[in-house]
Design goal:
Strand content: 15-25%
CATH class of the largest domain: Alpha Beta
Shape: globular
Strand order of the largest sheet: 15-12-14-13-17-18-16-19
CATH topology of the largest domain: Vanillyl-alcohol Oxidase, Chain A, domain 3
Structural class: alpha+beta
Helix content: 25-40%
Number of helices: 15
Bound molecules: flavin-adenine dinucleotide
CATH superfamily of the largest domain: FAD-linked oxidases, C-terminal domain
Distance between the termini: 17 Å
CATH architecture of the largest domain: 3-Layer(aba) Sandwich
Number of strands: 19
Radius of gyration: 23 Å
Oligomer: single chain
Length: about 475
């Protein structure tokens, strides 16, 4: 896009949205040029801050007429470079669209705009004394719920209820031509109760990273708050014992959540910026479990089953400690309070001196956790990174998440290059074992392209071309080319 075209687009956008909603100052635009990762910065030509759906429609129409690319962003915390725009394009910053439109208590769904954050909806439920709970990711509290549902992210109720795209009760979307579309239940019903039973057009906007439209409202499913809850930690001396426990516990259906974190996270929580090698006497993994019940008795019965599973593991030779409840841990060391209540800000990942955070996050079969764990940890150690590994079974054990995390110094070109090379190997190892990278960064799409089903690629490209013929919506994301069309 030439300077002249950008200037004409800017003038039209100022007229449609007002000057305060069109950001052009270099300093302010720098905020949008990068994220936590090693991805090279790209500065947008301008940023747009709409407050209403009509403004989103207007800006999409103008961008389409002027050939201006649009990349949506809320907090930019996706850890994949997804919200970094192409150089000179426009960023659509949705943080001002942060209305909680309604919370339907009986049907347990909140209709929210994309700027609504985890901490905001939690505060609302508390203030209004609404006895419903939501699932939380380990994301910073000021990030977008809608973005995470659209990315099919994961949270502490994913063991029970699946990944977050399953929690969508319907969408309102501004399409690339500026028209408005409702998908799922709200296409027909006043209650945003689910994605079916009409043809599931919501899927067009899930994991497509803003390439097919801009979601302006989403039905977010909530669940009853059980009166009795317990969060417990178990120290395990063997990674494979932890994976085994996850599978067993998932299939017994006694927990709301079973998560596993590897030893460097514990060290980092206690202030070690760059953990060295593990002392063989230290636990390798800690599991955290959420149990709940309608009565104290129900909770106790679940805890009994947990005890049986753990005894079984001990009999098989796995070494593990007795479960410790979080209040006890917090009494022993207040730093554990980071895991006591969600949402939480894991400063050791996002506020450390080097500032860089990158990961390869995948969903895949639980039966292959041990194999990917072995290969992933070996790769990370070979590249000189502490093997931070986060995993959990999801949807009752039908699949799970394996995420290898690296913190690094963003100022060091050598570390940035090393992280990227390591991530490439982690992606390859995971894909070979049947794991699929989620929140798929553009560079990962390139890496896995030759392995993707050609019919999948061609269909995705056709859908994209049909909805966005000019290729202006997040053109850097999911780079695919329709048959017979130049990319
Ligand atoms: C320390 C840390 C821990 C994390 N833990 C987790 C975790 O446990 N589970 C998890 O799932 N994630 C996790 N994340 C990732 C991330 O925080 C979440 O995915 C978060 O919800 C993304 O929100 P955001 O506002 O940052 O989205 P952004 O990064 O701003 O946007 C994400 C993507 O969605 C697109 N998008 C956003 N809004 C819209 C819209 N309205 N319409 C169309 N496209 C849109 C953007 O273009 C972009 O491609 C973590 C991140 C960090 C830094």
């Amino acid at each position: 896009m030439t300077n002249g075209t950008l200037e004409r687009a800017r003038a039209r956008l100022v007229e449609a949205l007002g000057a305060e909603a069109v950001v052009v100052e270099t300093g302010a635009l720098d905020e949008y040029a990068s994220d936590y990762t090693e991805e090279a910065p790209r500065r947008p030509g301008l940023a747009l801050r709409p407050a209403r759906v009509e403004e989103v429609q207007a800006l999409v129409r103008i961008a389409s007429e002027e050939g201006l690319s649009l990349t949506v962003r809320v907090a930019g915390s996706n850890v994949g470079g997804l919200a970094i725009p192409p150089e000179g394009g426009a960023v659509v910053d949705l943080r001002r669209m942060n209305r909680i439109v309604e919370v339907n208590r009986e049907d347990m769904v909140a209709v929210i705009e994309p700027g609504v954050t985890w901490e905001q909806l939690k505060a609302h439920l508390l203030a209004e004394k609404i006895p419903l709970r939501m699932g939380y990711p380990l994301s910073p509290p000021d990030t977008s719920i809608v973005a995470n549902c659209l990315l099919d992210g994961l949270g502490n109720l994913s063991m029970r209820y699946g990944a977050m795209a399953d929690w969508i009760g319907g969408l309102e979307v501004v399409l690339p031509d500026g028209s408005l579309c409702r998908t799922g239940a709200p296409a027909l019903s006043p209650v945003w109760f689910g994605r079916g039973p009409l043809p599931d057009l919501s899927g067009l906007f899930v994991c497509s990273q803003g390439t097919t439209g801009i979601v302006t409202k989403l039905g977010f499913q909530l669940w009853p708050e059980p009166p009795h809850r317990r969060r417990t930690f178990i120290l395990m001396y063997d990674r494979n014992g932890a994976f085994r426990a996850m599978r067993e516990l998932a299939q017994r259906m006694i927990c709301d959540d079973v998560g596993g974190l590897s030893w460097p996270t514990g060290k980092m929580l206690f202030g070690v910026d760059k953990p060295g090698a593990r002392d063989p006497g230290e636990p390798e993994f800690f599991l955290y479990l959420d149990l709940s019940g309608q009565s104290a008795r129900e909770l106790e019965l679940r805890a009994e089953v947990l005890g049986e599973v753990l005894d079984g593991l001990r009999r098989e030779g796995f070494e593990l400690e007795q479960p410790l409840d979080v209040p006890t841990l917090v009494r022993l060391n207040p730093r554990f309070s980071k895991f006591a209540e969600f949402p939480t800000r894991l400063e050791f990942l996002v506020d450390h001196p080097g500032g860089g955070l990158s990961w390869v996050g995948t969903y895949g079969p639980l039966s292959r956790f041990e194999a990917y764990g072995d290969r992933g940890v070996a790769i990370m150690e070979r590249f000189g990174f502490a093997p931070i590994l986060v995993s959990r079974p999801m949807k009752g054990g039908h699949f799970g998440v394996m995420r290898f995390i690296a913190t690094f110094d963003k100022q060091s070109a050598e570390e940035r290059a090393r992280v990227r090379e390591m991530s490439g190997e982690l992606v390859d190892a995971g894909v070979e074992l049947g794991f699929i990278p989620y929140k798929t960064p553009p560079w990962v799409v390139e890496r896995i392209r030759s392995r993707l089903d050609p019919g999948f690629l061609a269909t995705l490209a056709r859908v994209r071309a049909a909805l966005d013929p000019r290729g202006l919506m997040a053109p850097h994301c999911w780079p695919v080319t329709a048959p017979g069309r130049q990319g």
